[in-house]
Design a protein that fits this description.
The chain is of the alpha/beta class. The chain is built from 6 helices and 14 strands. The strands form 2 sheets. Strands 6-5-4-3-2-1-14 form a 7-stranded mixed β-sheet, covered by helices on one side. A 7-stranded mixed β-sheet has the order 7-8-9-10-11-12-13. Helix 4 runs parallel beside helix 5.
């Protein structure tokens, strides 16, 4: 059994035989369902270097011993931030297996920086755990290569997709992403944290229609796969 917990904004916790935490922005997140000290992990996946995605990764990794997996440049940056006190695994677009978890780092159309300096490239992750496949898009606009993700690594059980607009896809673009990805379920994320990314998840659900089951999770709620 695999459970996908929504922690708020773009933070998710995938729990099965391993515990995978993605983009753990918890401190300073008005939506956060847990505090950094209230969660454990085996792996922490970071989609890009913006602060609302790196979040509390270093703090959690120091406390739990979790490995941080990210784009090579982002992994090196985090290792420096932690003064070498955490284990980081740098990768690039492509598949690997870590701690028995299948991980595919895939492109995302977005920037990646500390706010001043560019750090690596933005990405999404396809996570394969206990026979289930979860796609976390990271921050991205829709692009036609998403169809390849389904072709190569599907079927996708659930796609976690940003809908907030301004920095990422809005509901219309995210609905098109569903059409390309063909997931069984879709969960909207990265919306209503702050005014610039206000969006209505019900609009996303309406636009998706019968293409997939849209599950709207509140922070702290979970989806069982």
């Amino acid at each position: 059994m695999v459970k996908v917990h929504f922690l708020g904004h773009a933070a998710f916790y995938i729990k099965g035989s391993k515990r995978v935490l993605i983009d753990p922005f918890l401190s300073g997140n008005p939506q956060a369902a847990v505090k950094p000290e209230g969660i454990d992990a085996d792996l922490i996946l970071i989609t890009h270097a913006h602060g609302d995605h790196i979040g509390d990764a270093v703090e959690i990794a120091k406390r739990t011993g979790a490995k941080i997996v990210a784009m090579f440049d982002v992994a090196n940056y985090l290792n420096q931030q932690a003064n070498g006190q955490v284990e980081t695994i740098g990768m690039n677009y492509g598949p690997t297996e870590i701690e028995g978890v299948g991980i595919v780092q895939v492109p995302a159309w977005h920037s990646s920086s500390d706010g001043i300096h560019g750090i690596g490239n933005a990405s999404g992750f396809i996570v394969k755990l206990d026979g289930r496949t979860v796609y976390h898009a990271g921050d991205t606009f829709v692009f036609s290569d998403m169809a390849l993700f389904s072709e190569l690594y599907g079927p996708i059980d659930v796609a976690l997709l940003p809908i907030g607009g301004h920095f990422t896809m809005g509901p219309r673009e995210a609905a098109k992403a569903v059409e390309l990805l063909r997931p069984k379920k879709a969960v909207p994320m990265h919306y209503n944290t702050w005014p610039p990314i206000s969006a209505d998840p019900e609009e996303f659900k309406r636009l998706v229609g019968e293409k997939a089951e849209v599950v709207i999770l509140k922070p702290g709620e979970e989806l069982e796969l």
